[in-house]
Design a protein that fits this description.
about 110 residues; little secondary structure; two-stranded antiparallel sheet
C-alpha cells in the first residue's frame, strides 16, 4: 500500500491425495446435446440430454492432405552456384546502416 498498489495475488498449489482416472469423474455436462430445430422452436428447449451418458472420448485429428511439406521437399542449391559479392560501396553502406544509439544527420 506504500506505492498505491492494491493488487492481491493468491498462489494455489493443487495436490491430489488419490489420483483418479479422468474417465471416472462424472461431470454435469456429460449427457449434454444440442436440441434439434423442432425442440428449440416449439419446445423452447436450450439443451437436450440423457442422464448417465458417457462423454465422448478423445479423437485423432484428421490428416490434412497435401497441406504440410514433406521431408526433403526443398531442392538443394547447386554446387556451381556462388553467392553474389557486394561491391565495396554496398558493403560500406550496410556497415554504416547498423543500429546505433542516438541519431545521425548524414
Amino acid at each position: 500500500f506504500r506505492k498505491g498498489e492494491t493488487e492481491l495475488v493468491i498462489v494455489v498449489t493443487p495436490y491430489l491425495v488419490k489420483p483418479t482416472n479422468a474417465a471416472d469423474i462424472a461431470l454435469p455436462t456429460d449427457g449434454f446435446r444440442a436440441p434439434n430445430e423442432l425442440q428449440r422452436l416449439l419446445g423452447n428447449m436450450e439443451s437436450d440430454g440423457e442422464n448417465g451418458v458417457k462423454r465422448p472420448g478423445p479423437t485423432a485429428a484428421p490428416e490434412a492432405q497435401g497441406s504440410a511439406p514433406q521431408v526433403g521437399a526443398l531442392t538443394a542449391p547447386e554446387a556451381n552456384e556462388k553467392p553474389s559479392r557486394k561491391s565495396k560501396r554496398d558493403r560500406k553502406r550496410s556497415a554504416s546502416a547498423t543500429a546505433a544509439p542516438g541519431f545521425s544527420l548524414k
